[in-house]
């Protein structure tokens, strides 16, 4: 079981052109900001929307979409989990889970038995007679997962499956989802704008921005070496494009950053905000990366204060609340920022 | 509402009270003027039961026909992407604003024995529609079905179409989706539309008298009987009107949960 797709859709301002391959048992996360075309991509894979070009092929020989073929959603062996579960409110939980089996011709007793087994597996044993409205958000999303998986689909599509849940529920449901995805033999595509979901659940990540794939790789690789500002911000890095020469990188926006490794050609420099130190005076001991900058804004961010800095090298610094108080900084204040060369990541563009 | 009465400015309060009086007083008059002592004999007079039965049966049949044709029509208006949909909607709602008498004339011209369809019907089957009970049902359906269509279309538009997407990903074709997901979801809207349609059919006068005539036992429904009785025996007219008023109030009670209980226009799911 595998999924190979190249999806082209033109809809108003959206020009979507994305190719992806998902192997057996693999979970691919499609990560991107709102309006990037992620949901449109998923709707095409589901058969709810006919693409303007490209193809969708399952298992190497089953063509779901091509120039002269469009298999409608109800004839595709797939399961889909929606952001706000979309359990049918007029049916019981068991009937909801059994729905996909009934439409595919399974007799009622067998369908209900299979639904009951799946409700056990997702931890909803004994809740089958309830209406969806009587479930909590986490329970409803578990039921929705059971409903999507009960027919043993070749392709599982997950559209922001955790984003409607509150923070604590999200944590537990994410862990359970991870367990079920690990046992799932088909190809799974997870659409999300939350990097934590992508990192925790996916084997591979593709980042989609404005309808295009801007980066693809393992979650760890994407987190360590972001290639766009969007991804860098998501994973909490400052991304600076430049040109490497020896152990120095001349930034495209001006300024020079010293790095620990040899760099050549067009590169990205990535700086973690917590590795940036702030001083009121130029620090002694002459570290190589020191810049006079201006504080633009400071916002509390957990136990630290996130300081956005402008100047020759625009940076973000995370300093502890105590340190921030000691510096006595106000927006607009001049400040010295330093980063150790060994703390700067550099990789080819 | 009572709690906030003190806050209603006079320019709004006075017309509002006048409006209430205008709507309620005629009904009060009807109740006051009713020959209560004579009610039993009046109700059991020959023709009254017949007219009431004919009214109930024809209004119910008209509602059934409206459901069979109107719900699919509402679905087409709300869900399909066929061209000329707004024109179609405008055409469907014409009977809402058309004077019913004109509707009756139009039906006569098309379905009468010399009409476009009626002539063909008569020549091939020997059936003639006007002045039969079937004509009553046709006239009532013509006038009342738009109420059902508008109501169901509104319910369909308000219903979350993503449930239908979910059904499709679960292997349901559009017909199965309609039966097992869409229809149950909009059932309250269909019920409200059916009640509205039935009430409109029950009160139908103009199209019925024009297209079906006024024959006791076959086409004389309650409203026609009321009108006729008023000219000969006002007391009988009042009694018949009381019966229709009672039926209307019962209809209102059926709708109450939907319109009065949750505020007008909310259309909440019961």
Would you identify the regions of chain B where 5 or more consecutive residues have pLDDT less than 50? 260-270
Number of helices of chain A: 9
Number of distinct helices of chain B: 13
What is the arithmetic mean of pLDDT of chain B?
Answer: 87
**What structural class is derived from the secondary structure elements of chain B?**
mainly alpha
How many strands in all of chain B? 0
Order of helices and strands of chain B: HHHHHHHHHHHHH
Poorly predicted tracts of residues of chain A: none
What is the gyration radius of chain B calculated from CA atoms? 22 Å
Give the largest chain-chain interface (CB within 8 Å). Answer: A-B, 25 and 19 residues
Percent of residues of chain A in helical segments? 25-40%
Beta strand % of chain A: 35-45%
The helix-strand sequence of chain A is EEEHEEEEHHHEHEHEEHHEEEEEEHEE
How much is the average pLDDT of chain A? Answer: 90
Largest sheet of chain B: none
List how many beta strands of chain A DSSP finds: 19
Distance between the termini of chain A: 34 Å
Oligomerization state of this entry? Answer: heterodimer
Radius of gyration of chain A using CA atoms only: 24 Å
What is the 3D shape of chain B? globular
Which secondary structure elements does this structure contain, and how are they paired or packed?
The complex is a heterodimer of chains A (349) and B (270).
Chain A: E1 3-11, E2 14-22, E3 27-31, H1 38-46, E4 53-58, E5 62-66, E6 69-70, E7 78-81, H2 93-103, H3 108-121, H4 137-149, E8 155-159, H5 167-183, E9 187-192, H6 195-201, E10 204-209, E11 212-217, H7 219-224, H8 229-234, E12 238-251, E13 256-271, E14 277-279, E15 289-301, E16 304-311, E17 315-320, H9 321-327, E18 334-339, E19 344-348
Parallel strand pairs in A: 3-9, 3-10, 7-8, 8-9
Antiparallel strand pairs in A: 1-2, 1-4, 4-5, 5-6, 10-11, 12-13, 13-19, 14-18, 15-16, 15-18, 16-17
Chain B: H1 10-33, H2 39-43, H3 48-79, H4 85-97, H5 100-111, H6 116-125, H7 133-158, H8 162-169, H9 174-185, H10 187-202, H11 206-211, H12 222-232, H13 234-259
Helix pairs in contact in B: 1-13, 3-7, 3-10, 4-7, 7-10, 8-9, 10-13, 12-13
């Amino acid at each position: 079981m595998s999924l190979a797709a190249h999806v082209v859709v033109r809809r108003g301002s959206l020009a979507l052109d994305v190719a992806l391959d998902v192997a057996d048992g693999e979970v691919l996360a499609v990560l991107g900001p709102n309006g990037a075309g992620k949901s449109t991509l998923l709707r095409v894979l589901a058969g709810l929307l006919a693409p303007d070009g490209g193809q969708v092929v399952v298992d190497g020989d089953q063509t779901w979409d091509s120039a002269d073929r469009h298999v409608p959603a109800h004839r595709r062996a797939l399961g889909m989990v929606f952001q706000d579960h979309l359990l049918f409110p007029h049916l019981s939980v068991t009937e909801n889970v059994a729905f996909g089996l009934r439409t595919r011709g399974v007799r009622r007793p067998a369908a209900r038995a299979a639904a009951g087994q799946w409700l056990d597996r997702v931890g909803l044993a004994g809740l089958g007679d309830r209406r969806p409205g009587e479930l909590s958000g986490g329970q409803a999303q578990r039921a929705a997962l059971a409903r999507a998986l009960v027919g043993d689909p070749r392709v599982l599509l997950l559209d922001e499956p955790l984003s409607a849940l509150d923070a604590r529920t999200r944590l537990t449901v994410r862990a359970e989802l991870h367990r079920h995805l690990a046992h799932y033999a088909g190809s799974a595509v997870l659409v999300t704008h939350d990097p934590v979901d992508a990192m925790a659940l996916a084997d591979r990540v593709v980042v989609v921005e404005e309808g295009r794939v801007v980066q693809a790789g393992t979650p760890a690789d994407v987190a360590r070496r972001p290639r766009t500002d969007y991804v860098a911000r998501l994973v909490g890095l400052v991304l600076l494009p430049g040109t490497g020469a020896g152990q120095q990188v001349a930034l495209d926006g001006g300024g020079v950053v010293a790095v620990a490794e040899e760099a050549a050609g067009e590169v990205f420099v990535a700086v973690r905000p917590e590795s940036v130190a702030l001083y009121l005076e130029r620090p002694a001991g002459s570290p190589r990366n020191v810049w006079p900058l201006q504080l633009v804004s400071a916002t509390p961010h957990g136990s630290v204060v996130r300081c956005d800095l402008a100047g020759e090298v625009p940076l973000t610094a995370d300093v502890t609340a105590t340190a921030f108080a000691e510096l006595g900084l106000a927006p607009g204040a001049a400040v010295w920022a330093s980063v150790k060369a060994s703390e700067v990541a550099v990789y080819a563009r | 509402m009572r709690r906030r009465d003190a806050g209603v400015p006079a320019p709004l309060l006075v017309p509002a009270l006048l409006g209430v009086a205008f709507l309620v007083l005629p009904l009060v008059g009807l109740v006051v003027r009713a020959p209560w002592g004579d009610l039993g004999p009046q109700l059991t007079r020959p023709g009254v039961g017949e007219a009431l039965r004919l009214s109930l049966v024809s209004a119910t049949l008209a509602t059934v026909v409206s459901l069979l044709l109107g719900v699919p029509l509402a679905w087409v208006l709300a869900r399909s992407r066929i061209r000329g949909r707004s024109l179609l909607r405008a055409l469907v709602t014409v009977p809402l604003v058309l004077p019913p008498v004109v509707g009756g004339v139009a039906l006569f011209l098309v379905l009468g024995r010399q009409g476009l369809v009626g002539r063909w019907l008569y020549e091939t089957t020997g059936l003639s529609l006007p002045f039969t009970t079937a004509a009553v049902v046709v006239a009532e359906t013509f006038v009342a079905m738009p109420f059902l269509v508008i109501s169901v279309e509104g319910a369909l538009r308000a219903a979350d179409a993503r449930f239908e997407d979910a059904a499709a990903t679960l292997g349901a074709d559009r017909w199965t989706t309609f039966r097992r997901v869409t229809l149950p979801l909009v059932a309250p809207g269909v019920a409200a539309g059916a009640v509205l349609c039935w009430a409109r059919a029950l009160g139908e006068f103009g199209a019925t008298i024009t297209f079906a005539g006024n024959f006791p036992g076959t086409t004389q429904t309650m409203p026609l009987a009321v009108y006729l009785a008023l000219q000969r025996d006002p007391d009988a007219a009042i009694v018949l009107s009381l019966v229709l008023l009672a039926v209307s109030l019962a209809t209102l009670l059926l709708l109450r949960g939907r319109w009065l209980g949750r505020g007008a226009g909310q259309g909440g799911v019961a």
